[in-house]
Design brief:
This protein has a single domain, classed as Alpha-Beta Plaits (2-Layer Sandwich). 31% of the residues lie in helices and 32% in strands. The longest helix is centred in the last third of the chain and has 14 residues. A hairpin with a 2-residue loop joins strand 3 and strand 4.
Length: 116
């Protein structure tokens, strides 16, 4: 593997993932994976008629080349409103090994050719 990759993890309120995916693609990412979950914050004590509300979340996993990570993260923050710190969080993790990425790498090569 010649290129270095990063995994961008974005956690937003349910229904906001389309903004994240659109922003990441506009910044050069080729796609993402959306996982549904629920929040477990200690600060969230909302309830209705005695039933505790657990906020629904969407987790978007986006694999990008290390060189595009910064631009993708900034675009997601700006377009999905994460700058306020209240509507979600975004962070990245280094990716040490990748298997099964032939299609992903082919798309990256196509994008590289288009951008030149």
């Amino acid at each position: 593997m010649d290129k270095k990759f990063e995994l961008i993890v974005t956690v937003v309120k349910r229904g906001q993932s389309d903004k994240v995916v659109k922003a990441s693609r506009e910044a050069g990412a080729t796609g993402g994976t959306i996982i549904y979950g629920r929040g477990t914050s200690l600060h969230n004590n909302d309830s209705i008629m005695g039933l505790k509300i657990q906020p629904e979340k969407e987790v978007i996993l986006t694999l990008v080349e290390e060189s595009t990570k910064e631009n993708v993260m900034k675009k997601i923050c700006a377009d999905a409103g994460l700058d306020s710190g209240k509507d979600g969080i975004i962070f990245s993790l280094p990716v040490n090994n990748i298997l099964g990425t032939k299609k992903f790498l082919e798309k990256e090569k196509e994008l590289d050719k288009k951008n030149k």
